[in-house]
Every structure is written in C-alpha cells, then in structure tokens.
C-alpha cells in the first residue's frame, strides 16, 4: 500500500520523523556514545546530520519527475518512475544513525519498504530510531530492524527474491561477498566500501586552512570513518611547518570517556582495531618513520592520536586503511608525483587537497581518481550532495538529487493515438 500513498503524505511522515529526532537528540546521542564510544558532542552532531537526510528526502518525495516524448504525430511515450519494492540495508557501527537514514530516507520517500540489519555493535541506536519512526506515523512493517550476526542474517536478505535492492556500507571484502550472494536474484546494489583517502597539501596552501581541514578530516570519530584522510602528502616547501602546526593541534586533543565533558577522542571500537593501529605505527617506526610531537600511547582501547613524519611507500600504513587516530606525512616535490601517489590505490572514495592556485585546483580536482574530492576543506558529506566512490570503493550514490533514483525503476508506456 505504501507505494500508492501520495507523495505529500510520505513527505509529512518523514518530516515528522526528522522533528522527533531533533527533539530527542540528547537521548539518541547518549545511546550512541554508550554503544560505540563516540564523544557526546560528536554524537549530537551525528544526530543532526542523520536527521538532515529525512528532511532532504521528504522534499525529494514530491519532486520525482517522469517524462513525455512525442516521436511521431500518432505516438506518445511516457517514462514513469516506480518504487523498486522491498529493499534491505546492512549498516555499520561507526555512524549508526546516519547510515540508516541515508538509506531508508530515500527508500521510504520513493515508496519502498526496507529491512535493516544494523551492526551487532550498535543495535540500540537503530532500535531507538525505529521507535521514533513509528511515533512519526510510519505504517507497521514498512521499516523493520533485524538485530543479530551478519553471517546469519545476511544470506537471508541476499538470497530472498522478495528483496529487490540491497544497500551496504562496510568493507570492500564484505561488499564483494554480498555482490556474489546477490547474483542469483539479480538485485540492484548500492555499495559504499573501503577508503584509504589521500590528502595533499601544496606549498601555496593557506597553512591555517590546511591544518584545520586535516584535523576535521582525520580525527573525527577517532579516525574511524571511511572518508578519513589516511595518507597526507605534503609538499617539500611547507612540510616542516605543516608537520609542526598539525602536531601542536593533535597534542591538544583530549582523549577519554565519550560521556566526559571536553573529550574529543573516544575509544576505538574493539581490541582488533587497537591492534591494527599499533601494528601500523610499529611497522612505520621500524622502517624509519618518526613521531612528531605527542608520543604514541595506548591504554586499553584508548589510543592517543599521533602524527608520523618521514613516511615512505613501503610501510603498511601507506597502502592499508588504518581506521584509527594516526596520520602519516609523506613528502613530495612535484604536483604530478603527488597526484600519482594519491591515485596509487585500488580504492576511490574520498580525497582532499589544499591550494590557493586556481589553475592547480582545476587540474588536480580533475586528476584525482575518487568519487568525492574536497578542495580546501576536510568535510565533504552532506545530505544535499551525492556520496559514493569509484573503483573498489563501491557502486551507486547516496544523498543529493540522485539518492532517491537508487530506489526507483523506470517504466516506459508506449501509446498509439488513433486518428492523429
């Protein structure tokens, strides 16, 4: 029945859901921090960000357009958009609210139902969101939350012929597995996968802007995001000044319990995450890298943020996504070398660069082989713009005007006009 519900009514419910999220922002943020450790202020920011997708797609529900063609006097062709039908989403722990609303917002706006399998590490955030959806007036059964382990639930979603589309945010390895599992039922797929994002700072960059942008990109959620800068390439002429300024900013970050006032870096999600960060830092130091400023320290799952200088391409941190609060600085001399090193990865989600040269801005922006590029900014995710990557970073786009198209099918009606 939902697909036949007027778009204005779908928009009203999404708008009401947005309002309830904003009204209960403190509660949602506290649940999130208790589940995965994100500092409370940052968690509140995610609530606002997550709610913005509901507001955006509420408006998009009423802007779905078809097309009428007249190839001949006696012929009309109507191109119509219809909801895909039953959809499913598998979402991660690092943004447990936003990754749900970014998927179910457009699905519901388009007239689809959705089954969501949230991360087993953050089920309560998803369930709280569903409670608010019910209060907003979403019909029972339109949005279903299935908690548990992915290995048990995933095959049920991928193998079901009832589910016509799957949206997934997570690792490239799991994304490839889901593609294979969906092949037998020919499902539509949206995949937002691994990152390994480069960040380039040219000699002509505004140092203040570059440092602020790098901090915003790298250390949000303790570096546990798919769009975090994982590799920083800094031109020789500005390298030492940038390293010193960045190290000073990193030294001032407060690490601790996400519920404590003033904390900016919370714990990593689990012991495996801590072990990976530790291995990357130790490997880099053993191969000649050095720590700039704040020393590297681990206390349980709390990892002090660190800046590494004199990093080279043979180190693990150069080719593996760290997913933690560690930023390696690579030195370069020419624009061509920086772009080549930045592109030397099978991934292509996010990238960043800082320059005040307009010609260079156009050249580098075009040359970077990534789905999203930040120029003089470290923040690139918003409900109003498409989000997604190329190469092994995924398929499809979420957000923006195109986000709702992922949940729509085209139907073409050919009409013969008698007596025309």
Key structural traits:
Aldehyde Dehydrogenase, Chain A, domain 1, 420 residues, alpha/beta, 6-stranded mixed beta sheet, Aldehyde Dehydrogenase, Chain A, domain 2, 7-stranded mixed beta sheet, 39% helix, globular
Structural features, described:
- The protein has helices at 7-23, 25-36, 40-60, 98-110, 123-136, 150-159, 172-182, 207-218, 236-251, 271-286, 316-319, 335-343, 358-367; strands at 67-72, 75-83, 86-90, 113-117, 143-145, 163-169, 188-192, 197-201, 229-235, 290-292, 298-299, 302-303, 306-309, 326-332, 347-348, 350-354, 372-375, 390-391, 394-395, 408-416.
- The protein has 420 residues and is of the alpha/beta class.
- The mean pLDDT is 97.
- Helices cover 39% and strands 22% of the residues.
- The strands form five sheets. The chain has a seven-stranded mixed sheet, sandwiched between helices.
Give the name of the CATH superfamily of the largest domain.
Aldehyde Dehydrogenase, Chain A, domain 1
Largest sheet: 7 strands, mixed
Low-confidence runs of at least 5 consecutive residues: none
- What CATH architecture of the largest domain do you see? 3-Layer(aba) Sandwich
SSE layout and pairings?
Blueprint: H1 7-23, H2 25-36, H3 40-60, E1 67-72, E2 75-83, E3 86-90, H4 98-110, E4 113-117, H5 123-136, E5 143-145, H6 150-159, E6 163-169, H7 172-182, E7 188-192, E8 197-201, H8 207-218, E9 229-235, H9 236-251, H10 271-286, E10 290-292, E11 298-299, E12 302-303, E13 306-309, H11 316-319, E14 326-332, H12 335-343, E15 347-348, E16 350-354, H13 358-367, E17 372-375, E18 390-391, E19 394-395, E20 408-416
Parallel strand pairs: 3-4, 3-6, 4-5, 6-7, 8-9, 8-16, 9-14, 13-14, 16-17
Antiparallel strand pairs: 1-2, 2-20, 7-19, 10-13, 11-12, 15-18
Helix pairs in contact: 1-3, 1-4, 1-5, 2-3, 2-5, 3-4, 8-9
């Amino acid at each position: 029945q939902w697909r036949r519900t007027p778009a204005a009514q779908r928009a009203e419910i999404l708008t009401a859901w947005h309002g309830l999220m904003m009204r209960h922002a403190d509660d949602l943020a506290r649940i999130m921090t208790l589940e995965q450790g994100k500092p409370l202020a940052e968690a509140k920011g995610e609530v606002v960000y997550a709610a913005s997708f509901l507001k955006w797609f509420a408006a998009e529900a009423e802007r779905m357009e078809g097309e009428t063609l007249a190839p001949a006097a006696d012929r009309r062709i109507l191109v119509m958009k219809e909801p895909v039908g039953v959809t499913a989403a598998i979402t991660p722990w690092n943004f447990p609210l936003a990754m749900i609303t970014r998927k179910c917002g457009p699905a519901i706006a388009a007239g689809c139902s959705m089954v969501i399998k949230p991360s087993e590490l953050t089920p309560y955030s998803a369930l709280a969101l569903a409670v608010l959806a019910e209060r907003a007036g979403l019909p029972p059964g339109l949005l279903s939350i299935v908690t548990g382990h992915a290995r048990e639930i995933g095959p049920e979603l991928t193998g079901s012929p009832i589910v016509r589309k799957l949206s997934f945010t997570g690792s490239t390895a799991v994304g490839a597995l889901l593609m294979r599992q969906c092949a037998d039922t020919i499902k539509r797929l949206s995949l937002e996968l691994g990152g390994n994002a480069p960040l380039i700072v040219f000699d002509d960059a505004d140092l203040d802007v570059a440092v602020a942008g790098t901090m915003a990109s790298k250390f949000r959620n303790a570096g546990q995001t798919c769009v975090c800068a994982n590799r920083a390439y800094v031109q020789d002429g500005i390298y030492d000044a940038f390293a010193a300024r960045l190290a000073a900013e990193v030294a001032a970050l407060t690490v601790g319990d996400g519920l404590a006032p003033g904390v900016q870096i919370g714990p990593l999600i689990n012991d495996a995450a801590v072990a990976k960060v530790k291995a990357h830092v130790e490997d880099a130091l053993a191969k000649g890298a050095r720590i700039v400023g704040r020393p590297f320290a681990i206390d349980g799952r709390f990892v002090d943020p660190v800046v590494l200088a004199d990093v080279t391409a043979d180190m693990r941190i150069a080719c593996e996504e760290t997913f933690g609060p560690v930023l390696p600085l690579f030195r370069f001399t020419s624009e061509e070398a920086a772009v080549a090193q930045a592109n030397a990865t099978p991934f292509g989600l996010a990238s960043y660069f800082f320059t005040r040269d307009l010609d260079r801005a156009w050249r580098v922006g075009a040359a970077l082989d990534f789905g999203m590029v930040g120029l003089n900014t470290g923040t690139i995710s918003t409900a109003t713009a498409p989000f997604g990557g190329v190469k092994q970073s995924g398929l499809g786009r979420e957000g923006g005007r195109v986000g709702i198209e992922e949940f729509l099918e085209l139907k073409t009606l050919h009409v013969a006009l008698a007596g025309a």
